[in-house]
Write a structure and sequence with these properties.
Blueprint: E1 2-9, E2 12-19, E3 24-32, E4 39-45, E5 50-56, H1 61-73, E6 88-93, E7 104-105, H2 108-116, H3 125-138, E8 144-148, H4 158-161, H5 167-173, H6 182-196, E9 205-210, E10 214-220, E11 223-227, H7 249-257, H8 262-271, H9 274-279, H10 284-292, H11 296-320, E12 325-329, H12 330-335, H13 337-344, H14 356-360, E13 367-368, E14 377-380, H15 385-400
Parallel strand pairs: 1-6, 6-8, 9-12, 12-14
Antiparallel strand pairs: 1-2, 2-3, 3-4, 4-5, 7-8, 9-10, 10-11, 13-14
Helix pairs in contact: 1-3, 6-15, 10-11, 11-13
This protein binds adenosine-5'-diphosphate.
Residues 211-213, 240, 283-285, 288, 330-332, 335-336 line the site of adenosine-5'-diphosphate (ADP).
Amino acid sequence: MKILVINTGSSSIKFSLFDMNKNLSLAEGTIERIGEAAAKIRFKAPQYNIQLEKEGNIPTHKEGMVHMVELLTSGEHPVISGTQDIDGIGHRVVHGGEKFHEPALLDADILEAVRDHVPLAPLHNPANLTGIEEAGRVFADIPMVGVFDTSFHQSIPDYAYHYALPHSFYEKYKVRRYGFHGTSHAYICRKAAEFLGIPAESANFISIHLGNGCSMAAVRNGKSVDTTMGMTPLEGLIMGTRSGDLDPALHFYLAKEANLSMNDLDRIFNKESGLKGIAGSNDMRDIMAKSDQGDPKARLALQMYAYRIKKYIGAYLAVVGKLNAVLFTAGIGENSDKMRLMVMENLDHIGMELDSAKNSAPGSGIRDISTSPSPVRILVVPTNEELQIAMETQKVLKTMG
Ligand code: ADP
């Protein structure tokens, strides 16, 4: 069975083709800067000796989808002979609100429901919808499934997802914590349970996703019971350009004192804050290098970043109870031994003992970086959101018979 995974952004399409019989990625590509003078196209399919990077004229997502099919089907050794080789398509959808606890087969009613959730994710859901609609035209008869970033967190109990605001805001405007990165948290929790040889349904984890966006999930008996991102992805940890947790009264203060509009504050908190706001770059590698050279702002940014994670580890230990493992994933979580060390420093007294040699040893797959006697395991688990979407899509297709 071959599944194509599509992640559509406002000016980009990312795609991966999987052979599910072998759990293998056959090809992956990105088309970025759609609608700009020159779109950037990357495509690779190592088994077919294909690796290309070029610029092209891709004015709309429609042309992007057509180009994606061309990349998969043309050349000396095409990855597939035609769209008929694809059994199903999985679309990443950012916001499924309270409606979607599971992935869903995308029919007209489900699409309408995704459209209803646009106000909750005004930047992401419209792009995801465009991707679904355009793919629907190109792959007319191939079943398509929506996999939602929010679904994994629908198990969070009401006392943890409500904000202490007038209850009518929840009823009228759907104001509550939803959480994101669900696909990544779900994937690494399953992988970690497999690695530890424990049933996923009884595993207790603190899952830490540190990419450009960052979030943590408290996972009890395999289910998310709390997460750091909230109604929007702005809440929680310090991120590349997002502030994470703030005093909400800052809005009123800054609006008045700095004469900033709602739009200004939205832009500043989401795009000009976090690591970038503190140290001038949203790239962890730059900040690490600057800190090594003695830059005080870079050092402060690293300390703040690690401290926020540590604080939530303490909180989530209290929430979950007896833990099996703390899991690190995504660009920073998988690659930065220095950040993992800063986060896990002095947590021995709560049963989390990092082995600094194992932590700094090079490695690429799933690995245990805790000391042998550590009561709580500490694992690095490479994430693979695309594969998780492909697997969820396959599961839905199987139920169709
Ligand atoms: P996205 O959320 O866009 O998928 P990634 O998961 O790729 O992001 O994470 C990007 C972050 O990972 C960047 O801050 C980058 O600097 C950081 N990163 C990648 N490799 C390393 C590394 N070797 N050491 C430290 N940080 C790294």
